[in-house]
């Protein structure tokens, strides 16, 4: 069973895509023109709870980037969080668009958690610190 779905907040569909171990690579690293901005989170985390509406609003307002979320407490995703060395919540990683031969690069966002900052980051990620 594929666990890909669109998250639903307050009865309204959001453009944020919930990602799982089994679908992550095939979705994030598929050849495509849009990158993925992914939030790694824990549902019990107060910082994650505060970020949730901002993250969904960013997703709704910026269709030029794929916006995803990984629940690090979910059994089907916890090893994905280990693979990316997620040690604090939320952790925000940007995965640029990839071609068939591209390395699996990603960049960590560490600035203010605001829509304008997110938008600037996804357009200027190559000027930021490369995590891997």
Written account of the structure:
The protein is of the alpha/beta class and about 130 residues long. The chain has a single domain, classed as 3-Layer(aba) Sandwich (Glutaredoxin). It is about 30% helix and about 25% strand. It is built from four helices and six strands. It has helices at about 20-30, 45-60, 80-85, 115-125; strands spanning about 5-10, 10-20, 35-40, 65-70, 90-95, 105-110. Strands 1-2-4-3-5-6 form a six-stranded mixed beta sheet. The N and C termini lie far apart (about 30 Å). The model is unreliable at about 1-10 (pLDDT under 50).
Task: Tell me the layout of helices and strands.
Layout: E1 5-9, E2 12-18, H1 21-28, E3 36-41, H2 46-61, E4 66-71, H3 78-83, E5 91-95, E6 107-109, H4 115-124
Number of helices: 4
Number of strands: 6
**Strand content bin:** 15-25%
Structural class: alpha/beta
Q: Approximately how much helix is present in the residues?
A: 25-40%
Distance between the termini: 31 Å
Biggest sheet, spatial arrangement of strands: 1-2-4-3-5-6
Report the order of strands and helices: EEHEHEHEEH
Please give the domain count: 1
Sheet bearing the most strands, described? 6 strands, mixed
Give the overall average pLDDT: 84
C-alpha-based Rg, rounded: 14 Å
**CATH homologous superfamily grouping:** Glutaredoxin
CATH class: Alpha Beta
* CATH fold title: Glutaredoxin
Shape: globular
Q: Tell me which CATH architecture applies here.
A: 3-Layer(aba) Sandwich
Q: Give unreliable regions as ranges.
A: 1-12
